[in-house]
């Protein structure tokens, strides 16, 4: 079985750029968050808020690492790619890249932890096991041995 890679067009907008005309690095996190939300909508059939309502869990980001490989400029038509490097018992390590053609612009890994509302702390959260239905939907996107792990400098 070969890993499915989720892809979406990423259009670099003027609002993403700093006065030098290149993407201001925090804007990439907005771009990646939109890619992740599209992944949830297509793969789970729910957005972030609806995942809480439908499955009783959420996946906040616990860690993020990224490398900015080459600048992107307003008007660039890039492609965002997302797959899962590791699917654990209660965490998911997502890998994402942004390319323009064959040129890598950004690579990033995010670790998300599955949580549910805490029964002991009002308004709190506690770590949870990833529900089987979500695990099954994520499974096609889990990296196999043919897809290398992202090598990050950061």
Automatic annotation (TrEMBL):
CDD domains: 4HBT. It comes from the Bacteria. It holds the Pfam family 4HBT_2. SUPFAM superfamilies: Thioesterase/thiol ester dehydrase-isomerase. InterPro entries: HotDog_dom_sf. This is Thioesterase family protein. The lineage of its organism: Bacteria, Pseudomonadati, Pseudomonadota, Betaproteobacteria, Burkholderiales.
